[in-house]
Design brief:
This protein has nine helices and 16 strands. It is α/β, with parallel strands linked by helices.
Length: 321
């Protein structure tokens, strides 16, 4: 069986700003057709990593390869960046004195006039930018700037698309439209997404890297990292989680020699199990998020799908694998 070479390869990458180390010994591979999610607390090095991959920063040491060839740093090119890798910046990185139209088309200079007009109309319609096309980029809203930045990157038809908090200023319907387009019509050969929003990373990423203080501290499929975080801090990056000691886990029939992490959907109200008292019940749309006080365990978070449970209600909780 032939082994497919990765489209991106990062080996033993180190990067610092002055004396401050930002990335330490980071290594991973990105395969053709894959979307990689990167999560971590603010300041863990995620944005710097994307800028290094896009050729906008120079590494102190290590290897950065696109299809087996080194990614040139900003000191190796007249204009920093890589022609096959585009980054959607979280601060948009728009040309302030250019119009929306000129920003969207700035990577399409090699196209014919008719080709450029076709590209422009296509993205204006999909991203609802028709009304601001002639405006300066600085004279648009935060959500419009984010859509302009997305159109500017995607219109270049990159092989690798790097997304840094790409939906932070968008309303929910538009965000879902963009996610669908990124996974279908716009889909590049590979993507990397950085975001603090758990639902975005889980629905987009095939694999996830977790970063902390410049290092990769966990990696795996989206399901593996979500369901089996190495510690509570990692678990919380992807949503609500319950931490149980090995002794507490036994109350739910779970045998373990170390701490156990349970997601809210793994706890249900049943006829037999552990007794508790409802501390709070919050409406979440399709479900309720319930906090239950359990003797010997403190507080557990779970989902309940039927109706609001009044504070003080006695319930019986059981574990559902």
């Amino acid at each position: 069986m032939t082994k497919t070479n990765p489209i991106l390869k990062v080996s033993k990458l180190h990067f610092s700003y002055g004396d401050k180390a930002i990335l330490k010994n980071v290594s991973f591979r990105l395969k053709e057709g894959e979307t990689l999610g990167i999560i971590g607390e603010s300041g863990s090095g995620k944005t710097s990593l994307l800028k290094l991959l896009g050729g906008l920063l120079k590494a102190d040491s290590g290897e950065l390869l696109f299809e087996g060839n080194p990614i040139p740093g900003p000191d190796e090119r007249l204009i920093a960046g890589h022609e096959h890798i585009k980054l959607v910046h979280q601060d948009f990185d728009l040309m302030p004195y250019l119009s929306v139209k000129e920003n969207v088309l700035r990577h399409s200079l090699s196209e014919s006039q008719s080709g450029r007009e076709k590209i422009l109309k296509h993205f204006q319609k999909q991203l609802k930018l028709m009304e601001v096309s002639g405006n300066r980029a600085t004279d648009t809203s935060g959500g419009q700037k984010q859509r302009i930045a997305m159109a500017t990157a995607v219109s270049a038809s990159p092989d690798v698309l790097l997304l840094d908090e790409p939906f932070s200023n968008l309303d929910y319907p538009l965000k879902m439209d963009l996610i669908h387009l990124l996974k279908t019509e716009w889909k590049p050969r590979a993507m990397i997404i950085v975001t603090h929003e758990p639902s975005d990373i889980l629905q987009m990423a095939d694999r996830i890297l977790v970063m902390s203080k410049g290092r990769v501290v966990q990696r795996g499929t989206a399901h593996e990292v979500y369901q089996y975080p190495k510690n509570e801090s990692i678990g919380k990056l992807l949503g609500a989680i319950n931490k149980l000691s090995a002794e507490q886990a036994k109350l739910f029939g779970i045998s373990s020699e170390k701490e156990v992490y349970l997601r809210p959907h793994q706890l249900v109200i049943g006829d037999s199990g552990v007794e508790g008292e409802v501390k709070s019940c919050r409406f979440m749309g399709a479900t309720y998020l319930v906090e239950v006080l359990v003797e010997g365990v403190s507080c557990l978070t779970m989902f309940y799908h039927r109706s609001r449970l009044p504070t003080g209600t006695n319930v019986t909780i059981c574990y559902k694998n």
